[in-house]
Records
---
Amino acid sequence: MDAMTDEPLAAAPPLAPPEAIDLRAEFVTSGLAEVLDELDTDLVGLGPVKGRLREIGALLLVDRARARFGLQAVSPTLHMSFTGNPGTGKTTVALRMAQILHRLGYVRKGHLVTVTRDDLVGQYIGHTAPKTKEILKKAMGGVLFIDEAYYLYRPENERDYGQEAIEILLQVMENQRDDLVVILAGYADRMERFFTANPGFRSRVAHHIDFPDYSGGELEAIGGRILGQMNYRLSPAAQEAFHRYVALRMVQPHFANGRSVRNALDRARLRQANRLFAGDKPVTADDLSTIEAEDILASRVFSGGIDSYPPLPAR
């Protein structure tokens, strides 16, 4: 009401749609460009994966632009499947995906909740539903990342409660897709069998993204980034030793891409620390920062052993 006349105030006229929208400018101002640049910085390689994220980002930008012109449409289905071997960056990309969706207004919070079967499935009657619903409540407004999702389905066990969790997930993925994005992750072959046995998931997952293994050169670059972030470096001889290490480790069992490289460098730092501690002279900053060849060559990989902990489950 107008305070002077007691007349009702006129409603503000609706905003007129813009004549045109500069999508390139929207790409920058939305923060999408920043997130994708950070992804390039954080992850070596993965060109196909980064390309798919850019495509999804473009779809969402266009969808948002259409809404500003009044070209309303059904909200896009954003549930995803990430397939690939361990250590290929699936969790990191899921985190960036949550940021992209938040920047573009498709989720309220933009946080990532990472779970496995044990977080969702109970061990007795009446235990699964509360566990699953509690996780979903925590994930609402963001992204739920279910690692090794195929373990939810165990048809060989008649008393398994995974099917109850699956049914709850399917209902939420359909009815609350405007407030939650679910990413199912795991080995490609097992995920394919999981989708075949659970067609409800396949029909709700719009984006299937495969994460390739890293090449030897990419793994060495990952190692260099890991060490650089901790103010370490490889001596020239250690670089050659690490090159040999990567080539040998890639063909051994339980290889986990970037995860195996990180574990190897953690052990190299342990050996370096013990080597320096056992020495009989003061150490310099250069000594403390340099990984030498002997710190790499002490790995069991060079004697045919498996230099990995903890071991990954056999496929």
---
Amino acid sequence: MTTPDVTSIGLNEKLNKLRAAVLGANDGIVSTAAVVLGVAGATSHVGAIATAGIAAVVGGAVSMALGEYVSVSSQRDTERSYVAKETALHEQDPEGEFAHLVRGYMRDGLSAETATRVAQERTAADPLKAHLELHYGIDEEDIVSPWSAAIASFLSFFLGAMLPLAAVLLPPESARVPVTFVVTLLALAITGAISAKIGDADPKRAVARLIIGGALGLAVTYGVGNLFGTAAL
């Protein structure tokens, strides 16, 4: 009795927290900057801008943390179901599972003789771990934690969001919008470079996408705020 192979997902708790932190910071920067620039386009009243910005920071951080918790909890439940399934299969048909392991190594390019020898060594050490790594790309001892992802996402969103909030509140009114634009795009360039490094991608393309997309988004939200603010007046 065997189970189908699935694409290896290469899970790692440290990378999981780092991924959540980078995404959280990026979302905090973009969403908060969009909110404060939209309000700044409608009014120059510092109190209104600060209130909208603080609401965006708190609401966004909580929402991001909840989203990460739910997402990673679902992932963890799936990983645990794989562990339970493989455990049951080994108890029911250990010889069939050994043959399945050999076939898996042969599909990876090993000869039948080498695949059998590797399967024997891995089975002697830890048969369950060998199957989990080969078929699912997971480690029973390294299942991701939804709490760590949620906390990392909350803190990174909060810290990222403070950059545009400070940029729009601290400068004089005449420099408020351009300073926020510059600070936001610089912060996006940094998060883009970090995310590219994590994913082993081209940092130039990742940074360019974020800067262009961020600039367009900020321009649109500021324009909408300015349009509706003027119409209201």
---
Amino acid sequence: MTIKIEFKQSLGETNFDINLTLPGNGISALFGRSGAGKTTLINVISGLVTPDQGKVTIGEHVLFDSEKGVNLPTHKRNIGYVFQDSRLFPHYSVRGNLLYGVTNKDDAYFSKVTELLEIKPLLSRFPVSLSGGEKQRVAIARALLSKPSLLLMDEPLASLDMPRKREVMPFLEELSEQVSIPIIYVTHSLQEILRLAQHLSILDKGRILTSGKLEEVWASHSMRPWQSFSDHSSLFEGKIASHHSQYALTCVKLAPNTCLWVQKIEGEPETPIRLQVRSNDVSITLEKPVATSIRNVLSATVASIEIFNPGEDKQSVTVSLRLDEECLLWATITPWALDDLNLTVGDKVYAQVKGVSVTQRDIALTPH
């Protein structure tokens, strides 16, 4: 199943021309500057905004088709919506809020959702007595209890302070793994994208700049405006290969012939893991180093070389290193190093990786 959104619409100074296909599972993040059109896009999906022309489908289910005159009202689209603020009814208890609008009660599903979001102890309380994080967890549960075919989340953490964000984030991570409902997640936070999303779409002025698997979009030029020198990094979807019992390290396989060692992660072999490597934590050498403290030394081929700020005092060089057919590792070096190594595309080199992060668990791992 895929989710397809095609529409054209003029709103204010923005002329929307959207043609987007999203996967029917996992979390798909929508990212872009304020005013790029992220909320308008999901409002078109939900039916809160009707475009001039276009078509919106979830699998075979047609929600909107201007040519055929189809425009299902919002309440018939079977879509859950979580807003920036929780929008709970103040005069209803948590239980009352959760059951509002539920036509077919399912006690087993109610128990599963309230347990997943850890709100069972809150059922008899009223919204006024809840923290911001608790309110958002109740709002998420209420959206799930309608058994939607799609869940829309419009910056659900934006109104929370940092402690409350840290409180809710693990539940969103669990949601992606435990609930088989596709989620479209609007955010302006790169950290939320790294921890939650599997697919990323970037919007700008009502148009899709790029869309695809998170790792591919993260490495694209469309992400450069949001990545400073220190933020530039590579993302990898890997799997636990083995554990080193003596040194408490875990080997994560990125490709058939490419692995990285990280500090020990609890998990069985084949467990999916997302790794992040910052480009300024990667150094390049022409010969395989010996007697080094760095555990991750990978053979690579120079795939591209880009010089930033040419002609200015503060220059940097970004080198993409091909580790495998599907694995690219970014390294940031100085122009001096580029000249000294005399690097050219196609050169065989070695990459030394000084630090690795497991993004889902937000743990910095640097085995040396």
